[in-house]
Specification:
With 320 residues, the chain is an alpha+beta fold. The protein has three domains: 18-151, Immunoglobulin-like (Sandwich), CATH 2.60.40.680; 163-196, no CATH class; 247-319, Sporulation related repeat (Alpha-Beta Plaits). Helices cover 24% and strands 36% of the residues. It has seven helices and 18 strands. Strands 2, 4, 6, 7, 9, 10 and 11 form a seven-stranded mixed β-sheet that branches. The protein has a five-stranded antiparallel β-sheet with strand order 15-16-14-17-18. It is elongated. The two termini are 52 Å apart.
């Protein structure tokens, strides 16, 4: 009896976590026409991690571009902005952003939004209450952040100081603080002088064919082109081998924590291959020699009710 109660509670809590998806936006009730602002959407999605989509239909005249999609794939077409995730971030609550430009005309407007995800028994849809606004000259020209501060374009946050890590030919990381000047970029050049001295040692060791191996020694006066002809030849051969290897394009339509049931792909005419990568079971469709062919197939899959995006595989290994 005790085990039955525990099982019931476990199932109840699991179902509750999947059904209580909520969203919150920072759209004010009144907005000045022509305003350019960062719209935030807080999605409380609980334990949902599988293939998901958030979409928002905007009033006529509103244009939307990508803000922070939290690893999702952003699109905007016919007054509808969408973010699609193959697998959602692990946090139970995430905030995504959109850069929106409001229409130049005045009057009422309605924002409708929905959230879709794959549950254990198929596709689920959650429709939220519409957000009604009024475009008026006295309306807001900037929106408050859901975190309590003014919403800021994530691209602008990095303009003050951007830190990047460079790697020299010796493998040592060099930090470049891009604060408007280029002086720090000279550090990798100085560091590269050390491999130049090291690479001359094989020349001295293989000094028997004197005329051939002395040429790299003469070239040591150039700090960037100091490698021996043997190393140049090896790099050339590696490039040729890499370019001749097999590169194919596939379409990923889902990623799951457990091996998905074939019933999830009911109605799909294409063969689905499931591979385990990075701790997830990823559902793949097709095998194409060009990206254009794969994109064309995605449009066909949409007609069958499935979303996806193009991924690349080099000799059976997924690459970026």
């Amino acid at each position: 009896m005790k085990n039955s109660i525990l099982l019931f509670l476990s199932l109840f809590l699991s179902l509750r976590a999947y059904t209580q998806v909520t969203v919150q936006t920072n759209l004010p009730p009144s907005i000045a026409p022509g305003t350019e602002a960062l719209v935030e959407v807080k999605i409380n999605k609980g334990v949902i991690l599988n293939f998901s989509k958030y979409q928002i239909d905007v009033p006529a005249g509103v244009t939307v571009s990508e803000g922070d999609s939290r690893t999702g794939n952003f699109t905007f077409d016919e007054n509808r902005a969408k973010i699609v995730w193959v697998s959602l971030p692990s946090e139970p609550e995430i905030i995504v952003t959109f850069k929106m430009t409001m229409p130049s005309s005045t009057g009422p407007g309605v924002f409708n939004h929905k959230f879709y995800y794959l549950g254990e028994d198929g596709k689920k849809e959650v429709e939220f209450e519409a957000v009604n606004v009024n475009f008026d000259a006295s309306g807001a020209k900037s929106f408050a952040s859901l975190g309590g501060k003014a919403a800021t374009d994530p691209a602008e946050k990095g303009t003050a100081k951007t830190t990047a890590t460079l790697t020299t030919s010796s493998g040592d990381p060099v930090t470049n603080n891009n604060s408007g000047g280029n002086n720090t970029n000279t550090e990798p050049v100085k560091t590269n002088t050390e491999p130049v001295k090291t690479n001359t040692e094989p020349v001295k060791t293989n000094a028997e064919p004197v005329k051939t191996n002395t040429e790299p020694v003469v070239n040591t006066t150039s700090k960037e082109n100091t490698t021996a002809k043997e190393n140049t030849s090896a790099k050339t051969n590696n490039t040729a081998s890499s370019s001749s290897s097999g590169l194919v394009f596939k379409i990923q339509i889902g990623a799951y924590g457990e091996n998905p049931s074939p019933s999830l792909f009911k109605g799909l005419s294409e063969k689905v291959t499931v591979v385990k990568e990075g701790g997830f079971y990823k559902a793949l469709v097709g095998k194409f020699s060009t990206k254009e062919d794969a994109v064309s197939k995605i449009n066909q899959l949409k007609g069958q009710g499935f979303q996806g995006f193009v991924v690349r595989y080099q000799d059976g290994v997924r690459v970026k």
